[in-house]
Amino acid sequence: MAEEITKEEIQKLMRVRGNVRGAILQSHAIFIQNREGKGGVGAVEKKITELGYPVNFEKFKAGEWYPESLSTLIILTAKTLFNWTEKDIFEMGRSAPKYNFIAKILMRYFVSLEKFLAEVPNYWRKHLDCGKLEVVQFDEEKKYIVLREKDFKFHPIICVYHAGYYQGITEYVVKAEKISIKETKCVFKGDLYNEYVITWD
Ligand SMILES: [Zn+2]
User: Fold this and answer.
1) Of the four, 7, 11, 140, 157, which is 20 to 30 A from 173 by CA?
2) What separation in Å is there between the alpha carbon of 164 and the centre of ligand 1?
3) CATH of range 109-200; options 3.10.300.10, 3.90.1520.10, 3.90.226.10, 3.40.50.150
4) Cα(115) to centroid of ligand 1, in Å?
């Protein structure tokens, strides 16, 4: 088993305020089940319950709010239990939009990249009641987007998950062979916000 999360780390995480839609938690369960089978979901529930935060994935409702810290704890617990790497967490984020009912409905309306990018802050707000996401640069000819996350600091693993998530969404709206994303600024590395640069060719 990978390195355990310490009690102190969990307590610090659980004190961070902010909520996420149940749809995101449901997408975690789908990813875990696809990777590790139904038993995997049960193993994560058991472990988190032992840590003092009882969870039952079947009870989560897509449109309700749950602590983002709990979402983070689910990801961290799965990573530890199943020996996942950051690459797996990136994939978890990348696959989430296709499991997410709200994301699917929203994306149905986006006919152009420009329209989509104009909706990015609202898209964030529909999924999270804390922090914000802005598009700071965008050039369709030079093929890049710069995204900035502000007032959002739960755990570095979420930077990886979000990078995957943004890549997954971009794959829906940009038709390109190769799409890449890099986190160029990070609140866990002393920057004031997280910044992601998405490029494609
Ligand atoms: Zn970061």
Assistant:
1) 157
2) 12
3) 3.90.1520.10
4) 26
